Amino acid sequence: MNPTRKRRLTIVVLVAVAAAVAAGLGVYALQNNMNYLLTPSQVQSGQAASYTTFRLGGMVKAGSIQRSSDSLKVTFTVVDAGGAMPVEYTGILPDLFRDNQSVIATGHMSNARFIATEVLAKHDETYMPKELKDAMAKAHAEKPGIEKAGNRE
Amino acid sequence: MANWIPLWLHRLSSPPTFYRFAGTLQPWAMTLALLLGAIALYGGLVLAPADYQQGDAYRIIFIHVPSAWMSMFIYAVMGVASFIALVWRIKLAEVVAMESAPIGAAFTFITLVTGSLWGKPMWGTWWTWDARLTSELVLLFLFLGVIGLYRAFEDRRQGARAAAFLAIIGIINVPIVHFSVNWWNTLHQGSTVNVFGQSKMSWDMLWPLLTMTLATKFYYAASLFRRARTDLLALEGGKDWVRQIAQDEDAR
């Protein structure tokens, strides 16, 4: 490799490495502030104290959804592994909103309740036909041992 | 070591050779792209079953995901070509890098639009500032920045070198786009298709997706070949081989 190319190679590599380091440090510095959401247990341990509004993420507790009969008001409980949070929302919910669905709600705390202004449903990365899902659910129901073993992991 | 590969690459990088080579392959790549694209669309929209959770709405995945992969793939190609262009000053590498940018920008735009259309019914919002969506938007701005910088110079080769620097600096965003769903809590779900390990999609949905991925690759090749050929003719306007082509066209 001739000296001119070597010099150019050095400059290009140095610029690329400098950019990568700068981006890496930037991302690292932002890491703590880049929480897109807080879980109910994080909120209960006081991590939401510094926010007026924040996003709450977790699963809708089965059977906790209660719809008002005369308005669009809905109350439900969002749970994660170690906490639960009652949520109040008035408005139209996404199609995927239902029991045991992951949701992300934006809003604020008021009297130990989370008052949501927006509720988004999160879906997972698994895609399969309905028949297959039903068959799997049936297999799980018939052999409860499998599900238990799966949950322990 | 077999040295016919570098030799062949060296010969291919000469503009007249590449002009002929790309001219021969271009129609084949386009035919394959259209054929595979049609098969994938039929497989995805008609043959594949509805999803257990999202019903028929998930079918936009057959456009969204291949486009997203292409947006990153084309950026990577542009980055490598820019590197070669800066260090070795090979004209063809400059052409490949600069002509990839508009195609990549188009795929990124399609990714963002289809993602938005998918997000509204499923998530409940057109847009949210989570790490995956934001970094993909940054990717679009990087593509547009490369195009803009390239066009800002009167001398095209000078413009190409300046834009190549931007392309190399921006390449750091490609792994950020890919790993954003693992590094941060995002509304966007994680990866479905894994090269190493089990994919989380049943096979009758997966094959149309992979076919569409191939189709988009061929479309990129066809589009790049055509753009590069035009660009080479313009760049080498005064050269004998271009004059020869012009005379042959005239004689016809």
UniProtKB/TrEMBL annotation, chain A:
It is a single-pass type II membrane protein. Keywords: Cell membrane, Cytochrome c-type biogenesis, Heme, Iron, Membrane, Metal-binding, Signal-anchor, Transmembrane, Transmembrane helix. InterPro entries: CcmE (IPR004329), CcmE-like_sf (IPR036127), NA-bd_OB-fold (IPR012340). It is found in: Cell membrane; Membrane. Its main location: membrane. Belongs to the CcmE/CycJ family. NCBIfam families: PRK13159.1 (NF009637), PRK13254.1-1 (NF009727), PRK13254.1-3 (NF009729), PRK13254.1-5 (NF009731). This is Cytochrome c-type biogenesis protein CcmE. It comes from Rhodanobacter ginsenosidimutans.
